[in-house]
C-alpha cells in the first residue's frame, strides 16, 4: 500500500507540473522534466533501466520504433531519451497516467478513423522536420515477452516524407536470474490497474534497452523500413519472427 500511495502522489505531482509549468517552458526543459519524472516513477515501481552494451548512439532527432510489452515501455524510453509518442487511443483512458502522457505530447490514434490518421500523419512529418524525436510501437498493441507481432507499416511513411532516420529499440524485462519477468506482461483482458498492482507487488525488474543501428528513411519505402526494423528487433531479442511480419492499415 505504501508504494501505491507513493505512485499516486507522484502521478499527482506530475499532473501539477504539466498544468502549471509545461505551458511556460520550451521543449528542452520539458524533456528534462519528463526524463526526471519517468526515472522517479520507475524507481517507485522497482524498475532499473540498463542500456545494452554495444548499443548504437541514440538519434538526437528522428523516428524511434520499439517492441511493445507493457505500459512501462513509454516511461523506460522517456527516462533516457524523451520522445513524442504515438499511441493507441485506449491509453488516454488510463487513470491519471493517460492524462499525463497526453500532456507530455503523446499523440493518440483511434483505430479505424481514416481522417484522424491522415491528420496525425501530417503532424508527425512536421514534428520530425522540426528536429524532434518521435516514437511509436509498430506492433500496435502489447505482446507477451518472447513474441514479436507483425509491424504496421503506415506510420513509417512519416520518416520517408520527413527524410529522417528510423532507429529500432529492442526492450525486454528480466528478473534477478535474467529470465523474462512474470509481473510485467500486459496482455489479454488485464486492466491497467491490475498491471500496476502486479508490478508493485512483484520482485525487482530490470529493463534492458538495446539501441540498434538507425535506418535511413529518405528515399525508402515504408514496407522496407518496417521489415528492416522488425528483423533488427527480432534479432536483438533472439526471436524468430513469423512468416508474416507486416500489416497495412487503411489510411
UniProtKB/TrEMBL annotation:
GO terms for biological process: phosphatidic acid biosynthetic process. InterPro entries: Plipid/glycerol_acylTrfase. Pathway: Lipid metabolism. One of its GO terms (molecular function) is 1-acylglycerol-3-phosphate O-acyltransferase activity. It comes from the Bacteria. Pfam families: Acyltransferase. Keywords: Acyltransferase, Lipid biosynthesis, Lipid metabolism, Transferase. Residues 62-174 form the Phospholipid/glycerol acyltransferase domain. This is 1-acyl-sn-glycerol-3-phosphate acyltransferase.
Amino acid at each position: 500500500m505504501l508504494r501505491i500511495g507513493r505512485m499516486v502522489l507522484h502521478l499527482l505531482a506530475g499532473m501539477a507540473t504539466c498544468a502549471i509549468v509545461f505551458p511556460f517552458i520550451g521543449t528542452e526543459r520539458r524533456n528534462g522534466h519528463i526524463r526526471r519524472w519517468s526515472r522517479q516513477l520507475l524507481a517507485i515501481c522497482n524498475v532499473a533501466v540498463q542500456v545494452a552494451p554495444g548499443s548504437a548512439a541514440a538519434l538526437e532527432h528522428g523516428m524511434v520504433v520499439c517492441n511493445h510489452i507493457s505500459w512501462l515501455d513509454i516511461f523506460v524510453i522517456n527516462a533516457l531519451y524523451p520522445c513524442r509518442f504515438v499511441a493507441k487511443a485506449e491509453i488516454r483512458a488510463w487513470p491519471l497516467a493517460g492524462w499525463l502522457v497526453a500532456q507530455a505530447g503523446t499523440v493518440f490514434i483511434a483505430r479505424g478513423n481514416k481522417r484522424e490518421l491522415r491528420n496525425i500523419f501530417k503532424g508527425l512529418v512536421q514534428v520530425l522536420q522540426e528536429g524532434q524525436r518521435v516514437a511509436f510501437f509498430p506492433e500496435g498493441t502489447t505482446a507477451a515477452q518472447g513474441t514479436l507481432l507483425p509491424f504496421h507499416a503506415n506510420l513509417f511513411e512519416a520518416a520517408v516524407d520527413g527524410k529522417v532516420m528510423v532507429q529500432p529499440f529492442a526492450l525486454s524485462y528480466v528478473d534477478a536470474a535474467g529470465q523474462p519477468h512474470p509481473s510485467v506482461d500486459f496482455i489479454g483482458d488485464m486492466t491497467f490497474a491490475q498491471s500496476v498492482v502486479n508490478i508493485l507487488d512483484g520482485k525487482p525488474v530490470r529493463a534492458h534497452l538495446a539501441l540498434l543501428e538507425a535506418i535511413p528513411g529518405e528515399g525508402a519505402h515504408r514496407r522496407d523500413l518496417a521489415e528492416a526494423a522488425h528483423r533488427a528487433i527480432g534479432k536483438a531479442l533472439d526471436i524468430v519472427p513469423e512468416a508474416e511480419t507486416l500489416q497495412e492499415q487503411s489510411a
